Amino acid sequence: MELLTLTKWWAVPVIWLPVVCWLFVKSIQMGHTIQEVILMALFGVFVWTLIEYSLHRFLFHIETKSYWSNTAHYLLHGCHHKHPMDSLRLVFPPAGTAILCVPFWNVVAFFATPSSTPALFGGGLLGYVMYDCTHYYLHHGQPSKDPAKHLKRYHLNHHFRIQDKGFGITSSLWDAVFGTLPSSKISVKHN
């Protein structure tokens, strides 16, 4: 099973960006203007940031007690914390993403119109692609300027200092909203 957790970072944009584009085109073909699709996509990206925070805080850092829940947690996120610089464990496997797309699509479709669902979902999927690529870069890139330099310090602080704070990857917005910002003294310390 562990083999299924290994993914090259570039697989995420190669597989999912064409799907994102197709979804945007679908909403345009169903009568929306490009400007409307852009706004819906931006809203989808914004919603993704809340999903990213929520998954990382409440699912990836859940307390487990049984053998099977410990094993599932390790495969889902624990292996990433144990081996944070393993380049094959920094992005979510495409097969897992495809499976999760079904319930997320259904939630969006429940709240949105048939013509806006593709653009809203596409925005969320674009947010996911941005998240996974950002996550890889924060671990293996060498940013020299903010905001990337700050995000790298912020995320590595979560890995190596305070694992129960700093759950945002692409932004600290939801950490600020929900009170999980690490203390500023620690999170801005230079390497």
Automatic annotation (TrEMBL):
<dbReference type="GO" id="GO:0080132">
    <property type="term" value="F:fatty acid 2-hydroxylase activity"/>
</dbReference>
<feature type="transmembrane region" description="Helical">
    <location>
        <begin position="37"/>
        <end position="55"/>
    </location>
</feature>
<feature type="transmembrane region" description="Helical">
    <location>
        <begin position="91"/>
        <end position="112"/>
    </location>
</feature>
<keyword id="KW-0479">Metal-binding</keyword>
<dbReference type="GO" id="GO:0005789">
    <property type="term" value="C:endoplasmic reticulum membrane"/>
</dbReference>
<keyword id="KW-0560">Oxidoreductase</keyword>
<keyword id="KW-0275">Fatty acid biosynthesis</keyword>
<dbReference type="InterPro" id="IPR006694">
    <property type="entry name" value="Fatty_acid_hydroxylase"/>
</dbReference>
<keyword id="KW-0256">Endoplasmic reticulum</keyword>
<keyword id="KW-0472">Membrane</keyword>
<keyword id="KW-0862">Zinc</keyword>
<keyword id="KW-0444">Lipid biosynthesis</keyword>
<feature type="transmembrane region" description="Helical">
    <location>
        <begin position="6"/>
        <end position="25"/>
    </location>
</feature>
<keyword id="KW-0276">Fatty acid metabolism</keyword>
<dbReference type="Pfam" id="PF04116">
    <property type="entry name" value="FA_hydroxylase"/>
</dbReference>
<dbReference type="InterPro" id="IPR014430">
    <property type="entry name" value="Scs7"/>
</dbReference>
<feature type="domain" description="Fatty acid hydroxylase">
    <location>
        <begin position="42"/>
        <end position="180"/>
    </location>
</feature>
<keyword id="KW-0812">Transmembrane</keyword>
<dbReference type="GO" id="GO:0005506">
    <property type="term" value="F:iron ion binding"/>
</dbReference>
<keyword id="KW-1133">Transmembrane helix</keyword>
<comment type="similarity">
    <text>Belongs to the sterol desaturase family.</text>
</comment>
<keyword id="KW-0443">Lipid metabolism</keyword>
<dbReference type="GO" id="GO:0006633">
    <property type="term" value="P:fatty acid biosynthetic process"/>
</dbReference>
<protein>
    <recommendedName>
        <fullName>Fatty acid hydroxylase domain-containing protein</fullName>
    </recommendedName>
</protein>
